[in-house]
Amino acid sequence: MGRVLEVRTPDGLQGVPVLAADGSTLGVVRRLVLSAGQHEPRWLEVELAEGAALRLVPVAAASHDGAALTVPYSAGCLLTAPAHVGHRVSARQARRLDEHYGLTAGSSGAA
Fold first, then answer.
1. Which of 12, 20, 47, 84 has the fewest CB atoms within 10 Å, i.e. is most exposed?
2. Shortest CA distance to 20 belongs to which of 46, 52, 53?
3. Tell me, what's the pLDDT at 105?
4. Cα–Cα distance between 72 and 89 in angstroms, integer?
5. Which region, left, alpha or beta, applies to residue 27 given φ > 0 means left and ψ of -120 to 50 means alpha?
6. Alpha carbons 6 and 64: distance in angstroms, whole number
7. Within-domain flag for 48
């Protein structure tokens, strides 16, 4: 797997493919999204390959090999993630997403 994703140039991630751990294509990065009260992006908004739905994936779970991002989630996991609209994630939405992805305070982001 590639290196841990460092978010220094958020615009440079737009359009980057997002892959599952098995190498299957999940979609592409649309943008980075902040959680309420945070200044660092915490979520990747991914346009899914199937149906063009948009779902958030934790930045902390992604690794980057220079050409694509890989996350430890399946297409099914992304499809069942809570939907999101907007440029920020509220504290309530963040809790729902954390629960969905099996994240806890201080976790690495892998479910």
1. 12
2. 46
3. 58
4. 21
5. left
6. 9
7. yes
Question: What letter does residue 18 receive in the DSSP assignment?
Answer: E
pLDDT along the chain (111 residues), means of 10: 48 88 93 82 88 87 92 93 85 92 64 41
Tell me, what DSSP letter sits at residue 70?
A: E
The pTM of the whole model exceeds 0.85: no
**pLDDT score, position 10:** 54
* pLDDT at res. 108: 44
What pLDDT was estimated at residue 50? Answer: 66
Q: What domain range is 46 assigned to?
A: 3-101
Q: The domain spanning residue 65 has which CATH number?
A: 3.90.50.10
Spatial separation of the C-alpha atoms in residues 90 and 82, rounded to whole Å: 13
The total number of structural domains in the chain stands at 1
Contact status, residue 56 vs residue 33, Cβ threshold 8 Å:
yes
Residue 106 lies in a domain: no
